[in-house]
């Protein structure tokens, strides 16, 4: 006899609480077929994908997790009978997101510098920061009366702290301060924190680097790799940024986080040949995929958004 929807949920939750990932994923896959309007199965399936990802797939899986939150919250809002139930779902998602973030950062710092580079460390921490900030934005959107404002504030504080810790770890505080990257990326986040908690003190960026003079017009990874801001590959990427990422609030937040960190990476390592070799293959494949999706490589003027 086939299990009912309620039986499948019970089995999935038992497996989840027993740390039986394979069992939980199996039951949640079955739940998707029986309950396509439920929030739990789509959330936990992408959650497990991030929790068990390899480094090569970490960024794409974290992006999938972050972009799935809107649909998950829509489904939860539609299925919850009242605000208290909806808040319980939000807190469950928050708990799981914090677990993923802590795991990503713990692994990142564990392997650095012995087994991973500064770029890999930065990429991993960026994923954790972005997940925190996107969930905070979701709380603002889905709880406009402020029921989750305290939780959103704590997530933003963690995001700012994680980025500050990374910057200080890489001794890039002087560069970030001089370039204004931190203010551009996190100025609005800090303003939201202080609106809820006026006593908040921003963590300090340590200006320990003696090489603190830098241009405020930092270049970015693709421009560094391809040698120009105006070339077919970068035109493609700029279109993807303006017409895909910028179309959603979580995409715009991702761009902000990327712009906060990538200039400092390029300033540290952009003149080295291994840096360009490291990124060239990945970017070439991504650009080819975007071209196949219809993002053209013809001359382009940036769109205001």
Structure in words:
By secondary structure, the protein is an all-alpha fold. It has one domain (37-292). Helix content is 72%, strand content 0%. It is built from 13 helices and no strands. The chain is globular and about 60 Å long. The model is unreliable at 209-219 (pLDDT under 50).
What is the secondary structure topology, with strand pairs?
Layout: H1 5-17, H2 21-34, H3 40-51, H4 55-79, H5 83-111, H6 118-142, H7 149-169, H8 173-179, H9 181-196, H10 221-226, H11 232-243, H12 249-269, H13 273-292
Largest sheet: none
Give the low-pLDDT segments.
Answer: 209-219
Number of strands: 0
The H/E string reads: HHHHHHHHHHHHH
Q: Output the number of helix runs.
A: 13
Mean pLDDT figure: 85
What overall geometry do the principal axes of the alpha carbons give?
globular
* Helix coverage percent: over 70%
Keywords for this structure?
305 residues, mainly alpha, 13 helices, 0% strand
Summarize this, please?
This protein has helices spanning 5-17, 21-34, 40-51, 55-79, 83-111, 118-142, 149-169, 173-179, 181-196, 221-226, 232-243, 249-269, 273-292. It is mainly α.
């Amino acid at each position: 006899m086939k299990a009912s929807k309620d039986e499948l949920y019970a089995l999935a939750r038992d497996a989840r609480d027993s740390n039986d990932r394979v069992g939980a994923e199996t039951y949640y896959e079955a739940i998707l077929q029986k309950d396509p309007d439920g929030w739990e199965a789509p959330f936990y399936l992408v959650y497990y994908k991030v929790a068990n990802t390899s480094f090569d797939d970490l960024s794409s899986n974290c992006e999938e997790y972050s972009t799935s939150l809107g649909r998950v919250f829509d489904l939860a809002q539609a299925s919850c009978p009242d605000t208290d139930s909806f808040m319980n779902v939000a807190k469950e998602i928050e708990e799981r997101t914090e677990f993923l973030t802590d795991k990503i950062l713990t692994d990142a710092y564990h392997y650095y510098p012995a087994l991973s580079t500064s770029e890999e460390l930065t990429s991993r921490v960026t994923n954790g920061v972005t997940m925190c900030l996107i969930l905070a934005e979701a709380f603002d959107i889905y709880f406009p009366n402020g029921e989750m404002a305290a939780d959103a504030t704590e997530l933003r504080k963690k995001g700012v702290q994680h980025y500050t810790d990374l910057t200080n770890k890489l001794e890039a505080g002087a560069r970030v301060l001089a370039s204004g990257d931190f203010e551009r990326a996190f100025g609005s986040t800090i303003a939201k924190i202080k609106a809820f908690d006026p006593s908040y003190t921003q963590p300090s960026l340590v200006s320990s680097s003696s090489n603190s003079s830098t241009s405020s017009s930092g270049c970015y990874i693709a421009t560094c790799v391809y040698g120009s801001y105006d070339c077919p590959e970068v035109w493609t990427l700029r279109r993807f940024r303006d017409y895909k990422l910028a179309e959603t609030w979580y995409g715009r937040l991702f761009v902000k986080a990327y712009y906060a960190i990538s200039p400092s990476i390029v300033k540290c390592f952009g003149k080295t040949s291994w840096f360009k070799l490291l990124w060239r293959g990945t970017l070439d494949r991504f650009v080819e995929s975007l071209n196949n999706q219809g993002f053209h490589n013809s001359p382009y003027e940036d769109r205001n958004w």
